[in-house]
Amino acid sequence: MRRILSILIITMVAVGVAAATPFVHGPYSGAPSDGSVVISWMAAEQVPARIEYGRQSEYEQTGTFSSWIDCVPVDSTTTTTEHVKIEALEANTAFAYRVILSTSEGDIASAVGYFVTEPAPGDTVQFAVVSDTQWQWEGENRLRVVGDAVAADPMPFDFILHAGDVVESPVSVNWDHWFLSFENMLLRAPFIPVLGNHEKGHRSYYDNFVLPPGGGKGDKRWWALHWGDVVIVGLDTTNLKAADYIAEQDWARLHLSGTEPNKFVIFHYPVFSSDAYHGDGYSYDAIFHPIFVETGVDIVFNGHAHNYERIERDGVVYLVVGGGGAVPRALADTLVNGSIVATSGYNFYTRVTASVSEIDVEIVSVALASDDAFVPTDGFLLDAFSLPESEPSTNTNWTWILAALLGVAFAGLLLVRALK
């Protein structure tokens, strides 16, 4: 199959970049579905490119790709992030791909990346979660150590989630450093983030990533991924407008009320946390928690606090997973109600296996870390637990109906205040 495309540039970021490799960012993938994926990259100069792809099994046997797309840049005068959607893919299939740039020095190929399309109901889903990667300014590149640990993990990830604070500040030098540090991880599987406060709602975040179908600014402030027996809802908790929270409440309730047996949510600020510096106190226990209880959410992933904590409230497990590379922070002397495991002083990532019978979660250490020390570990587990699949409740829970109404009323009060 051969198709000639003029690339529709979904995002364009004019930057001045000098690079030893023609690839400044990527390639990397995003927005996976049952029959499509988006391949993204930024080159040092706008040149024609070709995406080669095919079934992973065929590539591993032959070293070649059966399909390709030729890409002609729309604008050759600026350095831009390019996103190309590959469609008409077979569902429940593992693929390999690479991008070849036609430069003045000849064709230059990227490393090979991988993605899978949506599995069939009943199939196991596996994914990784990182958060608060940001940027450490001195010493060893902690981000690369974390990213390479995820890249080397033997689990076949369907995708990699990020709970926000991708970069320290959304300027080009930070993005360049981040993409270089995580180049190996980004080839493993599609990357799907949510906004953190350090992104500052900046255009560059929206320019860099293509996400599952969503809403808000650019349809990227919140999103939902329906993936076999799993649904994941990504929310934006960095905004200040009450109308956005009301919209997100409706979005969450809609997408979490489906038939998927395994339900996850991811956003930046923690609903509950024993962090000594940030704590919680963001009112998400009133805004979102009742919805999660009502719809039977299994696990909520949060960042912002640079430590690990597992908290259970009303049957919902909250995981604070802000260990992706930023300096770890201390926990308070007194832990919040429902705290089961709380650990500080590590960089780490999370891996999840979700099947029809249970959800298995492992928190994988990467390094013992502080402001002035960084000592890689052998990957021992900071925590591991399983959640058996529960039957949906058929009883009316008036307590949580009342709590949900109070959450709506709280968001409405915020809206009234915002309109004054």
Would you give an account of this structure?
This protein has 420 residues and is an alpha+beta fold. It is built from nine helices and 24 strands. The strands form four sheets. An eight-stranded mixed sheet has the order 13-14-15-16-17-19-18-20. Strands 10, 11, 12, 21, 22, 23 and 24 form a seven-stranded mixed sheet that branches. Strands 1, 4, 5, 7, 8 and 9 form a six-stranded mixed sheet that branches. Helix 8 (289-295) packs antiparallel against helix 9.
The residue fraction in helices comes out at 10-25%
The CATH class assignment of the largest domain is Alpha Beta
User: What fraction of residues sit in β-strands?
Assistant: 25-35%
Structural class: alpha+beta
Give the strand tally. Answer: 24
Low-confidence parts, pLDDT < 50 over ≥5 residues? 1-19, 392-406, 408-420
> What is the domain tally?
2
What would you call the quaternary organization? single chain
Q: Under CATH, the topology of the largest domain is which? A: Purple Acid Phosphatase, chain A, domain 2
Name of the CATH architecture of the largest domain: 4-Layer Sandwich
- The named CATH superfamily of the largest domain: Metallo-dependent phosphatases
Mean of pLDDT: 88
> How would you sum up the major sheet?
8 strands, mixed
Rg over CA atoms, rounded to whole Å, is 21 Å
Total number of helical segments? 9
Whole-Å distance between the termini? 58 Å
Strand order of the largest sheet: 13-14-15-16-17-19-18-20
Shape: globular
